[in-house]
Structure formats: structure tokens, C-alpha cells
Amino acid sequence: MPLRDALGNVEPYRPQPPMRVLAERAGLERMVKLASNEGAFGPLPAAVAAYEAAASELHRYPDGGAASLRAALGERYGLPPEQVVPGNGADELIRLCAAAALDAGDAAVFPWPSFASYVSAAGVHGADAVRVPLRDRAFDLGGVLEACSAPAPGGGRVRLVYLANPNNPTGTILDPAQLRGFLDALPAGILCVLDEAYAEYADVEPEGPALLREGREALCVLRTFSKVYGLAALRIGYALASPAVAGALDRVRPIFNANQPAQEAALAALGEADEVARRVGHAHGARERLREVLAAAGLDPLPSQTNFVYADVPGGRADALAEGLLAEGLIVRALRGFGAPGAIRVTCGTDEENSAFAEALARVMARDV
């Protein structure tokens, strides 16, 4: 077949069946999904109104430059609009960063466990994905720097670093001083991508935009409207980047990658600061209660700076625990695909959903999963 050899090393995304299908298989009327880190409360009303208002123009192509959204985000972060790049969710921008930085034989470096899209982003471009193991369930930035200074396994160069901050799936966040020290020590010629998809949930928001305002060149910061803003289905995210990196992303991104209803909904969502703050506050309380529930059940959870909680499962039986919870009508994420086969990740839901999870977890653990 006339297909690229590199694709043989890329594992395709294998989606979970729809919730209604899972409910039918389990003989249940309802499934509670706490697996994908979606916002617990749905889209913001202003975003829904803007989305509906855009429906009459569906026969028109979207604004390929996303001018209004870029201007609003530039004003929010104190950056020129030209340093804002729209994306079909942050996930597309992860792939576009690889397209801008990697040639075949080069390498991307990132801590592991972390977001699985970093692996495929490197692989589809014929580059190596160099995983640096966590140390005590935290980023080993020294190990990342060592990997960046070593030759790429494929004979090229290390050209790209992904750092999820806060990290998915562990929910941990980097100390700002450590991050700055890492960036200062990063060898020249390497693009650092700070994936800040969960930034709004952190106790103190990560400093990616501030680092860009300082004029750092080889830096790109990714954010999204999929989480706290509740727009996951619309696939709308954005990159904040240095002028050179933003220009490169604009050269590799599809012309109409951000559809118009998504742009309009995102713009409206930016004006809902009070409701966003309420949702963040709810997540702060919910993640702590979930951590307590997981610990009381005998799991080993980590404190979280996101809207989810990571927990190691006794005996490494994470897959069995996830299957047991699924039979109870609760969907959580077993983390084998994220590089943590002995752990699960539980998204903060509504209070009722979190209570249902606690009750189901107690039942499943009582059966000695």
C-alpha cells in the first residue's frame, strides 16, 4: 500500500462506545461519565445563545483568521493578536506544533505518564517520542533536560518538548521557579510547548502567558475552551506563542480549522467570568472530596490542580476496577494508554454524580476487585 512507513508506529485513537450503548450493554438506564475531564455543568448560557445565533450563517465559511477571537484573547493575555493561533481544540495544536518543529528522524521529549497525544503527534511525522519517567509521581525536569541534550534515537535532533502543566493524568503542577530554570537551561533550537489545558483549575494559574510577555522565543502555550467553559463538542482551543512560533503554526494549520459557531461561542464564554469562577470553586471542593473518597477506599490518590483526581490502585488492578465501576454505571479512565497501567483518573462531576461514584466505588472495592 502507498502509505507512509511512519504510520505503522502510530496507534490510532480507539474511542469508547457512546454512553447509551454502554448503558444498554450493562442493562442500566443511565451512565455517569467521569472519564474525559469535561466540565460538569454544560456550556455557558451565553455561549449557547451565541452558537444558536451563528446557525443562520452555516452556509458561509468561517473567519479563517478568527480575528475577533484572536483580538479578545490577545487583550486578555496582554499579547498582540498575531501571537494567538486558533485550533480545533488544543489537541490539534499539539499536532501542529509537531508539524512545525519535527522532521523525520527528529525527536520530541516529554515526561511520562502524560497526555497520549504527544506520542502520536511525534509518530505521524516520523519522529521519535522520548518518554522521561516521572520521579515520585512528579516531573523529572533534570531527566528531561538530559534527554534533550542526547542525540535523537532516529539520528536527527531533539526539536520539541511537551510539558503538560498541570499534568494529565496526574493533576500535578510545576513550581514556577523550577519551570523558569528549566526554560533557561533548555538547549537552543528546541521548542517548548506548555500544555495548559487545565490552567483555570489551578490554585494559582500557571505562568505561560507571562513567560511569553517576557519575550521568550522558543515557547508555545496551549489552552482550551473544552474544560471549564464547557465547549468540548465544538473543538475550540488556542495557542499563545512567540511571533516566530505563531507564524509557523499559521503556516501548517488548515485554513478553516476553527468553525464559526465555535468561535462565536468561545467569544461569548470569555465574558462569563463570574460563572467560570463558580465552576472553578466547585471543582476545587469536588476534587478534594474525591481524593478523600479514593484514599478511604484504599487507593493512593494524588492532590490535584485540575478537575480530576489520579489514583494508583492496589495491586495494579486499575483495569479491573474500571470494569467493575462500569458495571455499576460509572465510567472512569483506566490509564494504561497514558503510561500508568496501575492507575485510574476520575473527573469531578456534579455533587450527585460524585456521590454516586463514592457509593459505587465502595461496592466494587467490597467485592475485592
Largest sheet: 7 strands, mixed
The rough form would be described as globular
Going by CATH, the homologous superfamily of the largest domain would be Type I PLP-dependent aspartate aminotransferase-like (Major domain)
Derived from helix and strand composition plus strand pairing, the structural class reads alpha/beta
Distance between the termini: 45 Å
- What is the gyration radius calculated from CA atoms? 20 Å
How many strands appear in the DSSP assignment?
Answer: 13
β-sheet strand percentage: 15-25%
Query: Helical segment tally?
Result: 13
- The percent range for helix content is 25-40%
Oligomer: single chain
| Uncertain segments | none
Total discrete domains: 2
CATH domain topology of the largest domain: Aspartate Aminotransferase, domain 2
Labels describing this entry:
369 residues, alpha/beta, Aspartate Aminotransferase, domain 1, Aspartate Aminotransferase, domain 2, 2 domains, seven-stranded mixed β-sheet, 13 helices
Detailed description of the structure:
This protein folds into two domains: 5-43 and 274-366, Aspartate Aminotransferase, domain 1; 45-270, Aspartate Aminotransferase, domain 2 (3-Layer(aba) Sandwich), CATH 3.40.640.10. The mean pLDDT is 95. Helix 5 links the parallel strand 3 (107-112) and strand 4. Helix 2 (45-53) runs antiparallel to helix 10. It is globular. The chain contains 13 helices and 13 strands. It has a seven-stranded mixed beta sheet with strand order 2-8-7-6-5-3-4, sandwiched between helices. It has a four-stranded antiparallel beta sheet with strand order 9-10-13-12. It has 369 residues and is an alpha/beta fold.
